[in-house]
Amino acid sequence: MKFFSLIPVIVIGGLLLWAGQDFPKWGDVESPASKSPVSSHFIANTGVDTEVPNMVTAVLADYRGFDTMFETVVVFIAGMAVIAILRGSSVGRPRRKDHEVEAEPDLIVTNTVRLIVPVLQIFAFYVLAHGHVSPGGGFQGGVVMGASFILIALSWDLEKAMSRFPIERCLFVAAMGIVLYGGIGLLSMMLGGEFLDYAELDKILPVSREMARYHAMLGVEIGVGFTVASIMFVLYANLASEGRLKQGL
Amino acid sequence: MIGLEIFNTFILLLLVVAAVTSLWVKDLLVSAVVFGVYSFLMCLLWAEMGAVDVAFTEATVGAGISTVVLVATIFHLRRKSND
Amino acid sequence: MEGGSLVSELFIERLNYCIYVVLLLIGLWAMLAKRNLVKKLIGMSIFQTAIILFYVSIAVKKDATIPIYLAEHDPHGSHAKVATEKNATGNQDAYHPVELKPETVKGYANPLPHVLMLTAIVVGVATLGLALALTQRIYQGYGTVEEDELLVKLERADERTSVSPVTGAKPKGRARSSTQGSKAKAVASSISKNKSTAKNSSVSKTKKKIQSQSSSPRKTSGKGKPKPKS
User: What range does the domain containing B55 cover?
Assistant: First the structure.
């Protein structure tokens, strides 16, 4: 089996290496990907269209907003599927003997985490809100936020984290994130534009069309952050406890 | 300029070493942790390539969440792997 | 074709592509040849990151900065500057951010592959979590995540419930799959080490389910099929 699987691997490797000689050299300014009018347009016009200095955020949330919306939906569906697969799967099964832990949560660890978690959560909000002018955005901020709850669950136990962020609230917040994203899109549609055409929001916001896109992008990123944060915690909570949602690691 | 290329190549070779190691070892926990190392090396490489947003995402997602999720799964499985 | 130029083309000027290919092949080989399911998933992640690495590397431009506007191109930076000038000189011209010139565009890395790959990473971890949930479920059902042991146990489970080849070949798809699922559960709980009374009751329950579910393919095929012994 190991020998036979080498055959497709070597064939594919040979084909890829053969194709490799046609690729542009490292850092080629004239490479097809960099010369294409689409990315040149994004680089040249992001500042004019949206006034967002970080082009990645602008392309992510505005020019390619439809794509990002459904990526968020994919993350949401993956969280739902994990819950559906693991819920009730271990009912009646005894907990494994080698997982019994009698010790209290460690004093040093818990006190350190007590100090770290608020800073981490404020950092998550900073990353989310400051994603327009620096690296960051909804995905990164959401993951840092989810990681703060995972940190609580790791240093105390899962019940402590679940009391802060119960699973029902996780799902509600995750759904709210998508509703917020889609709601901003629908709102711009109702105001006369197309779906996710944020410029139309200048009719209800006291700003110019460019700044309306700027602010709508922030709303969209908040929606993404909600979904990603809660789904990351849902993933951890279900996988660490085999769907029991208590005790955990 | 040549220094940067040497740095890139060095990180790329380390990536191959980390990938092979994480698949080589028979202990799944070691495998997961070496995969975290792989993710951090990848994050370093992307930050050097100028893809700061991607590097940030990889640092939080790839090295943080996916390592934790892998360890959480291995906790409930047998830790030894046969190959 | 001279071989020397090909080698220098590939392994000196495009060494980075060779290493991406090696990483991709490591992931592919792990997915094909490794028998542990967790190892397969790690191989899948390596495969995925190799592709993401390729995408990010085609966005690199020599001597280019990261895709965030420098202070002189920053709309708000220049806006602030224009505002102070306006106050100083009394110039009433409205401010408009200007489109960048093609030679300035060359100074910024290409943002489009970054965006595509950023979402791919987050979706990748979500799918990895989903796959790990399935792995945990397989371990609960069969007590192993090694592929070869898993195949042996599946075969044994098929023998024990004695599906005749005729009815097993053309049953209704839905009925068969659900029967197999409950079969697997029954076998798994019988081979699992930690037996309890609660589990024994669940075993008999699932066997009852097998009987009730296997009645539908028997009706369609019209042949007498040996009942699973309870």
Answer: 2-76
Cβ distance B4 to B44 under 8 Å? no
Q: Give the structural domain span for A160.
A: 57-87+111-249
State whether residue B1 is helix, strand or coil. Answer: coil
List pLDDT tens digits, range C219-228: 444 444 444 4
Q: What is the rounded CA–CA span in Å between residue B55 and residue B61? A: 10
Instruction: Compute the distance between CA of residue C53 and CA of residue C224 in angstroms, rounded to an integer.
Output: 59
Helices C111-142 and C173-191: angle between axes, nearest 10 degrees: 60
**Contact (CB<8Å) C38/B28:** yes
DSSP C74: -
pLDDT in tens, A15-25: 988 888 788 88
Partner A contacted by B9 (CB < 8 A): no
Which residues on C lie below 8 Å from A89 (Cβ)? 136-137, 140
C189 inside domain: no
Q: What pLDDT does C227 receive?
A: 44
Q: Is A99 on the interface with C (CB under 8 A)?
A: no
CA-based nearest distance B4→chain A, Å = 12
Radius of gyration of chain B from Cα atoms?
14
H helical segments located in A36-166: 37-50, 55-58, 65-86, 107-129, 138-155, 158-164
C41, two tokens: 């998933």
Let me know if residue A219 belongs to a domain.
Answer: yes
CA of C11 to nearest chain B CA: how many angstroms apart?
Answer: 12
Q: Per the domain annotation, does A242 fall within a domain?
A: yes
User: Cα separation of A139 and C117, whole Å?
Assistant: 12
Mind listing the pLDDT tens digit for each residue in B30-57? 999 999 999 999 999 999 888 899 999 9
What are the structure tokens assigned to A66, written together? Answer: 């439809």
C55 touches chain B (CB under 8 A): no
User: Which letter, b or e, does each residue of C38-49 get, where b requires 16 or more Cβ atoms within 10 Å of its Cβ?
Assistant: bbbbbbbbbbbb
Does A27 map to a domain? no
Within-domain flag for B47: yes
**Residue whose tokens read 């070597």:** A10
> Do the domain assignments include residue A49?
no
